[in-house]
Design a protein that fits this description.
Elements (H helix, E strand, L loop, with lengths): L1 H28 L4 H36 L7 H17 L5 H23 L7 H29 L6 H11 L8 H5 L4
Length: 191
């Protein structure tokens, strides 16, 4: 019963989140009828919610199994990693790499990198104390600048390597915006 509760909680959270984000993305990057946009939004929202609910269920199931086979019957640090590994592989790693799954995994990856960077500068972390303040004060600006420099270079010289929805957004912002002949095309639909 508890596993069903986790799955439902994740589904409800995801629907609330996706209802705000997906329509905006679909409106900006898709040129299709309102009915088709609604179909895309509902499909993406359902897939997002289903995958996160499935992950939560696999993760919680693995945590229960690992705790039960543990000699002391308690949760340990490797349990969370192994349960996440199993859920990540089963839900997001196998089969077709849909744009929804890619978006979720990339979002998680970015958050993990930021968390590991914070962990590295904490007391006892990987960064020596004498460099900790310099790294802490400059890490975000360098990360942000390198991220944007990289994506702009990739978009300009290797656009085929960029994920389709990002490429579409960038085309809208950096190419189509150069072609407008009225306030209607400027505000509503470029090119």
């Amino acid at each position: 019963m508890r596993l069903i509760q986790y799955g439902l909680s994740v589904s409800v959270w995801q629907v609330r989140k996706a209802v705000l984000h997906t329509p905006t993305s679909a409106q900006i990057t898709r040129r299709c009828s309102l009915q088709e946009k609604l179909r895309i939004i509902l499909k993406a929202t359902f897939q997002h919610a289903r995958n996160l609910a499935t992950f939560a269920t696999v993760y919680k199931t693995m945590m229960l199994l690992l705790r039960n086979v543990s000699p002391d019957g308690k949760e340990s640090s490797p349990h969370t990693f192994l349960a996440g590994l199993a859920g990540g592989y089963l839900v997001f790693g196998r089969g077709i790499q849909s744009s929804v799954n890619q978006q979720i995994v990339i979002y998680v990856f970015a958050r993990v990198v930021l968390a590991l960077a914070r962990l590295s500068v904490q007391k006892g972390g990987a960064i020596p104390r004498e460099f900790r303040d310099r790294v802490t004060n400059n890490a975000w600006p360098v990360f942000a600048a390198l991220s944007w420099a990289s994506v702009m270079w990739l978009y300009r010289w290797h656009p085929e390597t960029i994920q389709p929805s990002l490429k579409s957004s960038m085309k809208y912002i950096y190419v189509d915006s150069n072609h407008w002949d009225s306030f209607k095309t400027l505000l509503l639909q470029n090119k």
